[in-house]
């Protein structure tokens, strides 16, 4: 074992003996693994997408999972209720310092809504615009495997791609790349107010726009994982199936996908913006932002805590409105 790696291992166990966390051990062992790979050549299951390299998790003999890969800028603060911004690859490159990004664990899911009276929503993270990529072991650029992009269901209110893993699919049929998409949900993804007609104030249906941005990321970077960007099929179940139908209907960029599979499509009456007006007023008031013109209310809501917004969305869904 090279001396540099021996020193790292020694430091790890010294820290453990001093009472440091097992999480530090995991991070340290990852560093040892990567150092070993650098000594012997490129480590396995690492994909270079150009602006960063990602380490995947070989969960099956024939499948590697690359989990929680960003596809857009985090929709935080003033970016709440705005269309997703394309990923700032310069920022990502600078933040990784040329290192390998650990993509071996599932990320936090997008903030959930309430699934029923008495069930509190709010779990999850706003920094959730990520994809999981399941690829055949050893897949390289140029393999040109067809790609399946999956949108999860949950009534546009809840849902977690972790509950729909696809590594076993790839393991059984190792000639396909599968991508599952995290997108904003409930009030964080589908708040509607008339003032959004002026995009200076915000954007409609940002949850759907997240899905579009994910498809754009796939077009640019899936080839690094062995995928063929010209052979993309979109697939979804329930609300994900409804999303597929909407993308087929409102597809403004014919190059984002070539096929579509909609399963158990979830449809619900969609109120007009005018019909949503009292719901927005109720939501803003419940979040402590009900005063002043709509622009002031939106500014207040963008500065509100996630917990305040989660309570307000629960009240709007199952409260006294």
Task: Report what the structure shows.
This protein is globular. The strands form 2 sheets. It has a 7-stranded mixed beta sheet with strand order 3-4-6-8-7-9-10. The chain has a 3-stranded mixed beta sheet with strand order 1-2-5, with no helix packed on it. The protein has 10 helices and 10 strands. The chain has 321 residues and is an alpha/beta fold. It has a domain of 223 residues: Alpha/Beta hydrolase fold, catalytic domain (Rossmann fold, 3-Layer(aba) Sandwich). The termini are far apart. The N terminus is likely disordered.
Summed up:
Residues 59-315 form the Carboxylesterase type B domain. This protein is an alpha/beta fold and 321 residues long.
Q: How many β-strand runs?
A: 10
Distance between the termini: 67 Å
CATH superfamily of the domain at 46-268: Alpha/Beta hydrolase fold, catalytic domain
Which descriptor suits the 3D outline? globular
How are the strands of the largest sheet arranged? 3-4-6-8-7-9-10
What is the highest CATH level, the class of the domain at 46-268? Alpha Beta
The assigned structural class equals: alpha/beta
Return Rg in Å: 22 Å
The succession of helices and strands, N to C, reads HHEEEEHEEEHEHHEHEHHH
CATH architecture of the domain at 46-268: 3-Layer(aba) Sandwich
EC number: 3.1.1.-
Family: Belongs to the type-B carboxylesterase/lipase family.
Pfam family, one: COesterase
GO molecular function: hydrolase activity
Summarize the topology.
Blueprint: H1 3-17, H2 22-40, E1 46-48, E2 53-55, E3 57-60, E4 63-70, H3 89-96, E5 100-102, E6 130-136, E7 145-151, H4 167-172, E8 177-181, H5 186-190, H6 206-221, E9 227-237, H7 239-249, E10 259-263, H8 273-286, H9 294-303, H10 306-318
Parallel strand pairs: 2-5, 7-8, 7-9, 9-10
Antiparallel strand pairs: 1-2, 3-4, 4-6, 6-8
Helix pairs in contact: 1-2, 8-10
């Amino acid at each position: 074992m090279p001396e540099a790696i021996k020193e790292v291992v020694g430091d790890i166990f010294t820290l453990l003996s001093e009472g440091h966390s097992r999480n530090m051990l995991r991070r340290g062992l990852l560093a040892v693994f990567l150092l070993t790979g650098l000594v012997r050549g490129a480590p396995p299951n690492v994909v270079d997408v150009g602006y960063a390299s990602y380490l995947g998790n070989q969960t099956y003999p024939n499948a590697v999972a690359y989990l929680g890969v960003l596809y857009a800028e985090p929709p935080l603060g003033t970016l709440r209720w705005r269309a997703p911004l394309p990923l700032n690859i310069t920022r990502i490159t600078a933040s990784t310092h040329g290192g390998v990004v650990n993509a071996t664990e599932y990320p936090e899911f997008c903030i959930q809504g309430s699934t029923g009276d008495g069930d509190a929503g709010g779990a999850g993270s706003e920094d959730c615009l990520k994809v999981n990529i399941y690829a055949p072991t050893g897949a390289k650029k140029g393999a040109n495997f067809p790609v399946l992009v999956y949108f999860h269901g949950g009534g546009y209110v809840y849902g977690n791609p972790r509950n729909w893993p696809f590594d076993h699919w790839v393991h059984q049929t190792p000639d396909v790349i599968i991508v599952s998409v995290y997108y904003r949900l409930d009030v964080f993804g589908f708040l509607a107010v008339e003032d959004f007609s002026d995009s200076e104030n915000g954007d409609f249906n940002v949850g759907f726009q997240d899905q579009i941005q994910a498809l754009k990321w796939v077009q640019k970077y899936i080839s690094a994982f062995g995928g063929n960007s010209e052979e993309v099929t979109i697939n979804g179940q329930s609300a994900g199936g409804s999303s597929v139908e909407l993308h087929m209907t409102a597809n403004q960029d014919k190059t984002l996908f070539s096929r579509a599979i909609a399963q158990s499509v979830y449809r619900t009456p969609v109120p007009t913006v005018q019909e949503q007006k009292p719901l927005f007023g109720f939501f803003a008031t419940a979040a402590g932002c009900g005063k002043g013109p709509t622009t002031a209310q939106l500014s207040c809501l963008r500065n509100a805590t996630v917990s305040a917004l989660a309570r307000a969305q629960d009240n709007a869904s199952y409260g006294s409105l």
